[in-house]
Amino acid sequence: MKKTIYIDGMACIHCKNSVEAALRVLDGVVSVSVNLEDKCAVIDTNTDIDDAVLTAAITDIGFEVEKII
After folding, report:
1. What is the separation of C-alpha 14 from the centre of its chain, rounded to a whole number of angstroms?
2. Which residue from 67, 20, 29 is spatially nearest to 49, judged by alpha carbons?
3. What letter does residue 36 receive in the DSSP assignment?
């Protein structure tokens, strides 16, 4: 399953790395790709991860989730 998470507040490679690390450790996440220009992260999962879990992982490191599709 693929989800795109639109994230507000990312500005640099350190932001990108922080978001990737926060999402990569979640159970079921197979891959993470963060695009700073589009301000989003695309994750592939092998299970359905609740959007609230994804949002919490992002907000816990200081960013804001705009939407998840």
Report:
1. 14
2. 29
3. T
> pLDDT digits over 1-56, tens only?
999 999 999 999 999 999 999 999 999 999 999 999 999 999 999 999 999 999 99
* Under 8 Å between Cβ of 19 and 7: yes
Looking from the CA of 45 toward its CB, the CA atoms found within 13 Å total 20
Beta bridge mates, 8? 64
Q: Which two tokens stand for residue 30?
A: 């197979």
What is the reported pTM?
0.95
Q: Which of 52, 11, 57 is nearest to 32 (CA)?
A: 57
Q: Are 23 and 51 in contact (CB under 8 A)?
A: no
